[in-house]
Predict the structure.
Amino acid sequence: SAAGTKLKPPPVTRYNLNNVTTTSRPLENRENILILTPMARFNQAYWDNLLRLSYPHELITLGFILPRTKEGNLATRELQTRIAKTQTQSPERDRFKSIIILREDLDPSLYPLATQDEHERHKLANQKARRSAMAKARNSLLFSTLGPSTSWVLWLDADVVETPPTLIQDLAQHDKPIITPNCFQRYYNSKTKTMDERPYDFNNWIDSDTARELASKMGPEEVLFEGYAEMATLRTLMAYLAKEDGEEGRDLHEEVPLDGVGGAALMVKADVHRDGAMFPAFPFYHLIETEGFARMAKRLGWEAVGLPNYKVYHYNE
Amino acid sequence: SAAGTKLKPPPVTRYNLNNVTTTSRPLENRENILILTPMARFNQAYWDNLLRLSYPHELITLGFILPRTKEGNLATRELQTRIAKTQTQSPERDRFKSIIILREDLDPSLYPLATQDEHERHKLANQKARRSAMAKARNSLLFSTLGPSTSWVLWLDADVVETPPTLIQDLAQHDKPIITPNCFQRYYNSKTKTMDERPYDFNNWIDSDTARELASKMGPEEVLFEGYAEMATLRTLMAYLAKEDGEEGRDLHEEVPLDGVGGAALMVKADVHRDGAMFPAFPFYHLIETEGFARMAKRLGWEAVGLPNYKVYHYNE
Ligand SMILES: Nc1nc2c(ncn2[C@@H]2O[C@H](COP(=O)(O)OP(=O)(O)O)[C@@H](O)[C@H]2O)c(=O)[nH]1
Ligand SMILES: Nc1nc2c(ncn2[C@@H]2O[C@H](COP(=O)(O)OP(=O)(O)O)[C@@H](O)[C@H]2O)c(=O)[nH]1
Ligand SMILES: [Mn+2]
Ligand SMILES: [Mn+2]
């Protein structure tokens, strides 16, 4: 098709994966961060919090995947408006290195799920189909955006509305292959008549003998979900390990080892994914999606840790 | 760091995964192909064959991963020389869209493997470590190069030295999620005193009850390898299903369903990988690497087929 015209030679890019560092000092080493967000709805508070992240935006690539529902169309338009503003009108230090927006073919049988409210979404009967669809969305996003020069992937849900601005530096500082803060939710406590907070994400856990025994008796297609009374796993939930503000011995950077992780805010060394650790959309050791990811990463020799006292906040619908 | 200077706004790329087609007519639809090659040694015949592929090179991205061994260093230099020549001095139609070269951190315990000859490589005792390292190399390459606009991934080993120039079009025409030709090897037949050919790749197979039974008795860490007398699986090997040239009823495009696949020449719809299908470096249903990939893809609802009569040729050391 280029016959007769003189084109410049196509790009030949040589990357040396071993020259891409992933260290506890990403800023000094100018490491590239890929922030990945599956997004069903656009939340202004998420966007504002993202813009406040103090890691140099010129080292941050953003990747989004949105469903092809009406709600997803609306969210895509809202997201594009904010992106256009940031990338062209905002001060240069606010602008991100690059931004990729993907749309996903949603399984028509799942369309109702996307419009479900928090209560419906969390029903046990809906979990397997919903988490399996989420796993595929996360994988599509990951496989399509991770590049040879990416050092870290930060998974950040679209309804995480409040994090410390130093989130990336703070998590990287631990130099762990997989690390996650504790995801809480602010709410109005009608008893005390004040704003309060409560644990939100129950996917960050340490395994228990009970859960292992439950799993061992399950059929190959069964999945063990966390946070359901019908399925008492007796796992230790990081959500409940947070020490109170001012409690003796409270260390913001205390680590606990985790066997399962959630995806609300999850920092992963790119090499963990490159080894093949993805989000299984099928039962993997009776786990699925982000919890299955932690299991698969462990299978590949990578450990996960959580920071019970380091909090990020989920939107309250 | 950009303070005081006026930068142009960073790129915002909007991709719509649903607008990227993956069809039986990739050429008419101008579909992007990603050819991925793990390469331990540079083989001139592989490169010459690659250049002869008639699919428009401007739609082809090449990705390579080479080990950090002495041999890998040498192969990297040879590859770069050929690339530089093609991308700058060759006619425009020979030039590829873009080329990415990755180097992999090879597990030091595996260093000897890379320099092993065909016989040593194929020993059963060496298979698990070797195939696991290959799986990680393939995943690194895949995760780092697959982009949002990739339609197909063609896995092509660096020692596949002869394919029809229409390989991509011929395989795509079947419109299958995973499709592989039959990998043979040319050799000098000392009995007939003529050049002859023999089956080479035994990883393309249809499962058997015997193999399923063997697997069911294995410990969780055990892997069932194909093509070893020590482990008679009685699987149907596509390698032996090829009809002779001129044999009655021989159809170049005959399909057989496969349960395990090899990686010598393997065409995969990008969406199969995007759903999360990768090359397990750990035993997955007692399978590993490309064979484990086929199993994982099936788990995700994608089927593999082989073309017993459509041949490509492996180098003869
Ligand atoms: N692409 C995509 N994202 C989704 C879909 N459903 C939810 N999300 C997003 O995925 C993340 C987690 O989902 P959410 O429903 O908030 O999970 P929960 O907080 O655990 O109930 C959020 O960022 C959602 O906006 C979907 O169908 N497709
Ligand atoms: N990156 C990388 N590629 C390798 C390594 N070992 C082999 N390869 C390549 O991987 C492909 C398959 O390996 P090969 O040894 O030919 O397998 P076989 O033909 O099944 O014996 C070929 O393209 C090799 O050049 C390795 O350690 N690292
Ligand atoms: Mn949420
Ligand atoms: Mn080979």
Notes: The pocket of manganese (II) ion (ligand 3) is lined by residues A 157, 159, 314 (CB under 6 Å). The mean pLDDT of chain B is 92.
